[in-house]
Amino acid sequence: MNAAKKVIQHKEASDADHTLSKYDWDEAARELDRDGRTVLSSLLSANECDEISNMYDEAGLFRSQVKMERHGFGKGEYRYFNYPLPNLIGQYRQAIYPYLAKVANAWNMRLGIDIVYPVEHDRFLKQCWDGGQTRPTPLLLKYGPGDYNCLHQDLYGDLVFPLQVAVLLSSPGEEFTGGEFVITEQRPRMQSRAEVVALQKGDAVIFAVHSRPVNGTRGVIPPAINGIDK
User: Per-residue pLDDT tens for 45-71?
Assistant: First the structure.
């Protein structure tokens, strides 16, 4: 089930707040609690996806490039955006953060973690900068035939926000084949569970970066969540 319960009739590329307000965030929070992931259907339009994809060749927008095979991460490459972020990306990042901060704070409370994330994204960024984490983390992935991304967790620095958002920018079956988004979950004394999250062009998946609270027989347990694009 996807978190998008209401139909988006129209949206402007610059109106991220209006777009995100169309989703049922209570349902999204329930899915994140239950499954460790939720999907926002058609977050970006096809034109917006193409706009972002075309940024990849604009070297001035990025601070660094990583060839995954060199580091044993898989095959393919990605580029980290530099500040200032492109308007489309910056606006969506700022607009979605308050919804995710609410879930993150509820998770920390259940897990007994004494960290409260501020409601405003700018205040969270200031915390990161004050802690020496000043580099932007949004990135753009590029895959070719046979490329893949190994199972991993994106854990950078001491301040790690527990939720991450990935958006599919290409059309499955038309612009590529394969390329499923897979997450795995490990719980104490249980076998790992893998799930393929079906996405269409413009869909966004929100998923746990590392752990989430789950009710076990002896209280709350935090299973690890690994995300993978391949």
Answer: 999 999 999 999 999 999 999 999 998
